[in-house]
Specification:
3 domains; 16 helices; 6-stranded parallel beta sheet; Beta Polymerase, domain 2; elongated; 10 strands; alpha/beta; 4-stranded antiparallel beta sheet
Length: 463
């Protein structure tokens, strides 16, 4: 198989290693060109995210033989990687050694510091791995959708750098088709698996139209920022951020303010004035004591004329007094409630992942069939060329024997060509099908037989 992957990810390497071998968008095009040239590989793409760095490449035996391994610090092909899926011959290991050496040199990172964290996939396993990655089956958060966009970016960079050819182009295109099918046919990305997203999911049960709601975020940390992103994507356009320091709240407000979205910053002391405006309240601070009490919420619900309020307390210790849950028209959820939602949704995603794996397996076999079919392309092209040459010669010979004038000769030749085309098309149909089938099934014996029957040169014939 001509496709291989060399990489590290969140399962095999700590962030201190991953960040050292990452590629930035500004440098990846030049890096791809250097890798293709210096490692003498035919096609290459690089997937570089915060959780993984994977080099997807294709190399021919000739390029491998011409590649020098003199400066490689790897002692033997049997111990190249501590974490590895090896199903390749020595050549694949040598190619991987070259790619790894290039990676280490490019980032000025000792090979011995990288290789314990690397994995190598070849052939069918490499194809299946790339497809699984694009579907979110290999992500830190199972089924997360961002990775597909990152894989598409990798393809785009490689296309722009001119390091994508026939094989990887076909592989990436089929991978994108597969990922779309997985998203359509399974529920792998539909269930909340983070506390921020779980909070938004629960809010959907209460509010039909987020564009008509006002959201209040208490705190300005990472969880609050993520929750704000989720709500804005769902259509919330009126948001408030309250924090102990107004400056930090303003930084978050400035990040999300736009022509369509209004975000205002407040201090925690402003809560009594603004809390009644909020339909959705998500709180996550480091306060050692509750900052939202039952009395404050009683006043708020009266001011709102008992319109429903949705509260999510993600803080530990809690930001909201437990007694608030006893008030009518208030829906209060804690971080424990979010965990229950997440665990249930993880089960749903895992079930969907099993369905997705079946789809990945199907597309992997389709790509392998396409790869195998390439072995028959040259023979089939030669066969058709041979038939076309015979057809042309016989038509010319037949016309020349008739001793016709120019006009008559042209008319007869046209008629004979049409007849010859129909005959050769019918004659070539079944043999062409046999060539394709033998190629798809990787049946070299049949290809040899067909080549012998039709007198075709067969470079793949075993001596």
């Amino acid at each position: 198989m001509p496709v291989s992957i060399l990489g590290i990810n969140h399962k095999t390497a700590p962030i201190s290693v991953r960040e050292r071998v990452a590629f930035s968008p500004d440098t990846i095009n030049s890096a791809l060109a250097k890798l293709k040239d210096e490692a003498q590989i035919d096609e290459v793409a690089i997937i570089s995210t915060c959780n993984r760095m994977e080099i997807v490449y294709r190399s021919t035996p000739a390029s491998a033989k011409n590649t020098s391994l003199e400066n490689s610090s790897l002692d033997s092909v049997d111990s190249i990687f501590a974490v590895s899926t090896l199903e390749s011959e020595t050549r694949s290991d040598e190619e991987a050694a070259v790619v790894l050496k290039w990676l280490a040199d490019y980032h000025d990172f000792p090979v011995d510091d990288i290789k314990p964290h690397c994995y190598q996939h070849d052939g069918e396993r490499a194809i299946e791995h790339l497809m699984s990655v694009a579907c979110g089956l290999d992500s830190m958060v199972l089924g997360e959708p961002q990775i597909l966009g990152q894989v598409k970016d990798a393809y785009g960079y490689a296309s722009h750098a001119g390091t994508i050819g026939l094989y990887l182009n076909k592989l990436f295109q089929q991978t994108f088709t597969l990922a779309k099918q997985v998203r359509t046919d399974t529920q792998i990305g539909e269930s909340a698996v983070s506390v921020a997203y779980a909070a938004v999911t629960l809010a959907k049960r209460i509010f039909d139209d987020f564009s008509k709601t006002t959201a209040l975020f208490i705190g300005a940390g990472e969880t609050i920022e993520l929750a704000a992103r989720h709500l804005i994507r769902q259509g919330v356009v009126d948001l408030h951020v309250a924090n102990r320091t107004v400056e930090r709240a303003q930084i978050l407000a400035d990040e999300f303010n736009s022509e369509k979205v209004s975000v205002q910053a407040h201090s925690l002391t402003s809560l009594p004035e603004i809390i009644a405006k909020a339909d959705i309240i998500i709180s996550s601070t480091a306060s050692p004591v509750p900052i939202i009490g039952k009395g404050l919420m009683e006043k708020a619900i009266v001011a709102r004329k008992h319109r429903s309020m949705f509260l999510v307390d993600l803080a530990v210790p809690r930001d909201v007094e437990p007694e608030v849950s006893s008030l009518n028209d208030i829906y209060l959820y804690t971080v424990d409630d979010m965990q229950d939602v997440i665990q249930e949704n993880l089960k749903l995603r895992q079930e969907a992942a099993r369905e997705a794996e079946d789809i990945v397996s199907l597309h992997t076999q389709r790509f392998i069939s396409w790869l195998n079919s390439l072995s028959s392309v040259s023979l089939l092209k030669t066969f058709r060329s041979q038939i076309e040459e015979i057809k042309s010669d016989e038509v010319q010979r037949a016309v020349s024997r008739l001793n016709l004038n120019k006009d008559q000769s042209e008319k007869i030749e046209k008629m004979m060509i049409e007849l010859a085309n129909r005959l050769t098309k019918k004659f070539m149909h079944q043999p062409s099908q046999s060539f394709r089938k033998a190629g798809e099934e990787n049946d070299h014996a049949m290809l040899e037989t067909l080549a012998d029957v039709f007198g075709l040169p067969n470079q793949n014939k075993k001596n």
